[in-house]
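User: What would this chain look like folded?
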Amino acid sequence: MNFPSPSPEAVLRGYFRAKDGNRPHLLERVFAADAELLIRNLSDNIAFPAVTRGRAAIADVLVRSFALANENVYSFYLDAPPATGTQTFDCAWLVGMSDRASGQMRVGCGTYAWSFDAEPLPLATRLVIVIECMEMLPQRESGAVFAWLESLSYPWSSAAAARRGMPAIESLSPLAGFLGRHVG
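Assistant: Here's the prediction, encoded as structure tokens.
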């Protein structure tokens, strides 16, 4: 497939469109065919393999399998990449979603470390995801959590905006701490 040459911002936007919208075919515009995904998971509330190699396998892990368990996904980058000329980009992220089976909410945060290959297209060659926390909330909290997530700019927000609008739910205190460390 021929696509216009994307910027790092377009690559990152495409990643969330693929993951949040259950569109694995969009990862052709995000990851190189031989890309590598590394996940350092510090939470017991969600599971991913530690290492995944190849765009097809990444699509299975981050889109297909993810969508089987989760719906109503809202993901946010808490910083924006430079428009051009970058081969790496590190940023914090925030995500909220509901479990398909139980309706429970998952709200989590962590960091991304992206590596891009500039030629022939700026596709991601490596993504390191650190899941710092993933909190489970009962379904009754979903109204307040979704209202908060919907109030944030998508897909680019900030730790300050996320922290400012966060509902006063005790289970979210680890996220509030994380966001406080990333307010810049």
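Helices lie at 8-21, 55-69, 142-151, 159-165, 173-182. If you want, I can go into more detail on any region.
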